[in-house]
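Morning, I've got a small favour to ask if you have a moment. Here's the protein in full, and shout if anything looks odd to you:
***
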Amino acid sequence: MNGPLDPWFKRRGMALLTDFYQLTMMAGQWREGRAHQRVTFDYFFRSLPPHTGFAICAGIESVLDFLENLRFEPDDIDYLRSLGTFDDDFLTYLKNFRLTCTVRAVPEGTLIFPDEPVLQVEGPIIEAQLLETALLNLLNYPILIATKAARVCLAAEGEPVLDFGLRRAHGPDGGVTGSRAAYIGGCLYTSNVLAGKIYGIPVAGTHAHSWVMSFPSELEAFRAFARQYPDRCILLVDTYDVVKSGVPNAIQVFKELAASGRHIRPAIRLDSGDLAKLSKAAYKMMTEAGLENPLIVASNDLNEDLIADLKRQGARINAWGVGTQLITSFDCPALGGVYKLTAIEGPEGWIPRMKISSNIEKATNPGRKQIIRYYDADNRPIGDLLIQEGSAWPEKGVIPGRSRKLPHLKAQLEDAAVGTPLLQTVFADGHRLVEKAPVTSIRNRAIEQQQLLGEEFKRLRNPEIYRVILSEELGEIKARLLSGNPEIF
């Protein structure tokens, strides 16, 4: 199911979700008579999180909801007037503001890579400038969390991963957005009930230590929980002592359930201690007691590296509850996505623009672009080609191009069987042009694309770098624009 209303991004009065300088630039363009100059902006990121070979596009649906509901409310205008910075003509423009920009984006759930235009905005500069801060806010975090979730799920090697992050998220918005992104990245369940309601994400949970501590004994606590939830009984066994009391008491309760005719899979959760050692001990005790195929869920500050390490140690864990390290992307708390002007419309057509920097990493790719993703004969992606919008692209074979960082250098993709454009028009004239996608279909796309991606790009350490190159035409344009900066080469 998909909730009928996403309250986080269909709220009215969100036009002021922006930086103050966006409004002062808009007012300046208005007074200079340049408000309707048509431009193109690209959203992209320059680098992946550490040790990561790919990212997952997330947040596009939230962007479209935001854009469809973008209005300046009367109290927004009153507040801006109170600042004493903006004149009445500009405030009247804002009062009647309607978005006319066209937006193109890759489908949510698509694998994405550095320097690719994940989303493009084309329209009057006064409108396109307003969108910068909100788009960065709506895209950077979910891309980061979906990507982190994918890494955790890769480490789990197909075993279920549960999102337990809400209580450690950066506020309610971060919790709901993060749970959605974690599900897209591959988590099977969330503990976040509100995210479950809004997005239709399956919800799951066990019980807390407080449940056990509130009863006269651990055994009585387990029996009570089993009475209330006999068909989904996962017992937390580390409140007192896992080996001496927790697991023995759980075994007794599961045997009692079986004797009463409830033949369920025995399931426990470990939330502390040496998870490898304790899971092995618990598995041995349960199987020797005749409880076959026990489900052992582990939590306790897990991340992809710890999960991989536990697997190397032979831990008998087969489900993973991941919270803090996932919802905060603990080792990389921010994605450096940016929103840069790439073209302006002149009397004779579009003129490429780029930011030129003495740091070659920060020099942007100019022009209105399309991404062509190439696949080999086995339908596995081999690399991406950035081309000028409207230009032809090679269909297969060796794909010639230029280095996207040093465009005077030749580059190529090899063994291409087919190429597919990724960017599609998703918003125009104030309305979305694509149907709202259920989060399950977005998640399926992300998982399917990960399955097709070569294993070398999915390593948790030292992944192969996926190739993204410029077309010959685009490389020549970038090299020409860079030629006036002698520090580059």
About this structure: The longest strand covers residues 337-346.
